[in-house]
């Protein structure tokens, strides 16, 4: 498979980047998208050029490291997969593929296709946890009965890997799907209810401080999320937030 | 912005003001329908709406506030949302994951706002002049003929129909979206979504049909 790649190149956070065009040959349909970029980088290194920088880690769709806006969609045209799980068989010989970093004011570009997503970490730090004494007397989680439907919904919310595709897909660069998943996974469980009020208020406040846009319910985040995080979580977060605001 | 300082508070405020305008739109459509079905009822209801103190001096200011709030907040949110992605994508496939209506609420909203300007110029301003500036004696039978004559111009009727089409687009996303914003997402959501989509088509369609009906059924001068 021969492809033309249009890739965003940016020397560092301060530099002004631009789209650069590369030709690549010998791409197999069984390669993942990241393996295709590995091939490109090998070719660039052999020519003495700077390889393209991109985020990656587990390469099996669970770490949330890989990102990339591929032909105008986060993680590319496939559904419920991360970029590392996207196979080149989704493309055709002769295609031109446009590859850009996830764009948001809260996700500044570090270099080329790598962006700083630490804004998500700070939202998590603001309340995405439960305070449990783990010094030897931890209570077995199964000792507290949980409604099956709630346990399932909580687990579905907890499947969020924090990749940022929701922000990248949203026309407003809103982080509400991510934040709502982190709020929901605790809001649905008895262990999470103790700090529920403080959690949602602090996490939403931090989300707003980071400079993400407002949610306008387009649903793009849900469609593009590689883990299928539902918009129900945003509705739940809105309810939690309103209730917490009344309680103070 | 005080109480509206958080993104969720602003979202809920947009939803509630939108729902309030939907209620107003429904009653406006019902009154307009009487102009087609029974001119006497239209005159009677219009007379009541135009002279009742509660409607004129309590509900009307609330309505104007609701409209202004919805638009001002909509523009403010649009500006903030645009600034959240200062660097645009070279390629962005919005149609792959969201409807045109949901992605372009600002466009449909601006068209509806422009229409409201025309509508105020056509109906509200002459009413205020008639009642409070020129202080004509009230004639409970004047409303029907005055309304019908407003629809004489094909250009005005064309503009009205175009605005109603964009109103339908705005409601198509906005009405159902407002329930999600206030946290309503449960087993009844699918049925509610069906109702809101039907509403988004039926109400603007009725407004358009009423305008066209009066255009083609002009009272001889």
Explain what you see.
The complex is a heterodimer of chains A (248) and B (221). Chain A is α+β, with helices and mostly antiparallel strands and 248 residues long. Chain A has 2 domains: 3-111, Beta-grasp domain (Ubiquitin-like (UB roll)), CATH 3.10.20.30; 117-247, Alpha-helical ferredoxin (Fumarate Reductase Iron-sulfur Protein, Chain B, domain 2), CATH 1.10.1060. Chain A is built from 9 helices and 7 strands; from the N terminus they run ββαβββββαααααααα. Chain A has helices at 33-46, 118-125, 148-158, 165-169, 176-187, 190-193, 196-209, 220-224, 232-247; strands at residues 3-9, 18-24, 69-70, 73-74, 96-100, 109-111, 114-115. Chain A has a 5-stranded mixed beta sheet with strand order 2-1-5-3-4. Chain A has a two-stranded antiparallel sheet with strand order 6-7. In chain A, a hairpin with a 2-residue loop joins strand 6 (109-111) and strand 7 (114-115). The longest helix of chain A has 16 residues, at 232-247. The model of chain A has no long low-confidence stretch (mean pLDDT 96). Chain B is mainly α and 221 residues long. Chain B has one domain (2-84, 102-216): Fumarate reductase/succinate dehydrogenase, transmembrane subunit (3 helical TM bundles of succinate and fumarate reductases, Up-down Bundle). Chain B has 8 helices and no strands. The longest helix of chain B is centred in the first third of the chain and has 31 residues, at 7-37. Chain B is globular. The relative contact order of chain B is 0.12. The model of chain B has no long low-confidence stretch (mean pLDDT 95). Chain A binds chain B through residues 6, 8, 19, 69, 71-73, 77, 98, 100, 103-106, 169, 171-174, 176, 204-205, 207-208, 211-220, 223-224, 231-232, 234-239, 241-242, 245, and chain B through 5-12, 77, 80-81, 83-94, 96-99, 102-103, 105, 173, 177, 180-185.
């Amino acid at each position: 498979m021969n492809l033309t790649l249009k890739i965003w190149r940016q020397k560092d956070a301060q530099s002004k980047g631009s789209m650069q065009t590369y030709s690549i040959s010998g791409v197999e349909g069984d390669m993942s998208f990241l393996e295709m970029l590995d091939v490109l980088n090998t070719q660039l290194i052999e020519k003495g050029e700077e390889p393209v920088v991109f985020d990656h880690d587990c390469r099996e769709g669970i770490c949330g490291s890989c990102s990339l806006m591929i032909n105008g969609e986060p993680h590319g045209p496939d559904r419920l997969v991360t970029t590392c799980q996207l196979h080149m068989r989704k493309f055709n010989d002769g295609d031109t593929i446009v590859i850009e970093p996830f764009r948001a004011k809260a996700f500044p570009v570090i270099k080329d296709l790598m962006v700083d997503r630490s804004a998500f970490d700070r939202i998590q730090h603001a309340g995405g946890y439960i305070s449990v004494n783990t010094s030897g007397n931890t209570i077995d989680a199964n000792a507290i009965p949980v409604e099956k439907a709630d346990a399932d919904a909580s687990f579905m919310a907890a499947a969020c890997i924090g990749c940022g595709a929701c922000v990248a897909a949203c026309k407003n660069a809103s982080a509400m799907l991510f934040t709502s998943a982190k709020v929901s996974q605790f809001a649905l469980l008895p262990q999470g209810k103790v700090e529920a009020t403080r959690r949602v208020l602090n996490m939403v406040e931090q989300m707003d401080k980071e400079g993400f846009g407002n949610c306008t319910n387009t649903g793009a985040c849900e469609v593009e999320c590689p883990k299928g995080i539902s918009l129900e979580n945003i509705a739940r977060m809105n309810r939690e937030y309103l209730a917490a605001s009344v309680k103070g | 912005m005080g109480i509206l300082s958080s993104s969720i508070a602003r979202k809920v405020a947009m939803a509630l003001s939108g729902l309030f305008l939907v209620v107003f739109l429904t009653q406006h459509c019902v009154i307009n329908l009487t102009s087609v079905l029974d001119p006497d009822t239209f005159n009677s209801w219009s007379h009541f709406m135009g002279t009742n103190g509660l409607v004129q001096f309590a509900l009307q200011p609330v309505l104007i506030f609701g409209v202004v709030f919805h638009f001002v907040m909509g523009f403010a949110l649009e500006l903030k949302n645009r600034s959240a992605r200062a660097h645009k994508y070279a390629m962005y496939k919005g149609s792959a994951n969201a409807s045109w209506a949901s992605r372009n609420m600002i466009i449909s909203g601006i068209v509806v706002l422009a229409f409201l300007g025309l509508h105020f110029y056509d109906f509200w301003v002459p009413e205020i002049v008639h009642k409070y500036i020129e202080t004509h004696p009230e004639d409970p039978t004047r409303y029907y003929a005055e309304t019908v004559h407003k629809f004489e111009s094909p250009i005005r009727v064309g503009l009205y129909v175009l605005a109603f089409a964009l109103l339908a687009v705005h409601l198509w996303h906005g009405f159902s979206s407002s329930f999600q914003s206030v946290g309503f997402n449960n087993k009844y959501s699918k049925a509610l979504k069906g109702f809101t989509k039907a509403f988004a088509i039926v109400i603007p369609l009725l407004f358009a049909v009423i305008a066209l009906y009066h255009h083609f059924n002009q009272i001889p001068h």
